[in-house]
Amino acid sequence: MSIKCPRCNQLLVNGEYADIPLKMCEECDGIILPQPKLVKFLEAFAEDTLSDVDIDMKIPETEIISTPVKCPACNMMMENYGYMGSNDVKIDSCFRCQHLWLDSHDLDVMATLYARANLRQDTERKKREDQNRKEAEIKYEASKNVRKWIKKRKRRRYN
Question: Does a structural domain hold residue 4?
């Protein structure tokens, strides 16, 4: 069954990325993929395309395409909403067949948002681990001091 691009009406070609089946438009570079596979796709795409991410970097401006499109897979109208609660990127989702249409320019921004969110989580986790390690060292030193104090008291008492 041939599926056409909802943006430029060209035939979509089959592809696979990170073991995820998808269909791509060779004209506008948009893709359709199963919604449950989005995180796996972004994880791989971010790793392959972003060598260095700055947590505070400005999100690249994108052309917001909010024209409703029909799902290339089932021909139902797709919902258009902001990715990660952001209006920086609008993605099209088919709630009937669980597919997403991602315009080419949105992929880079989505990968950046995904990588940035993960980097923030990693940074916060490392801060918590460092704080926990410091607190454990302080407790250890305090307990060591108490043990010395107890030994000293025992020696005094029995001498």
Answer: no
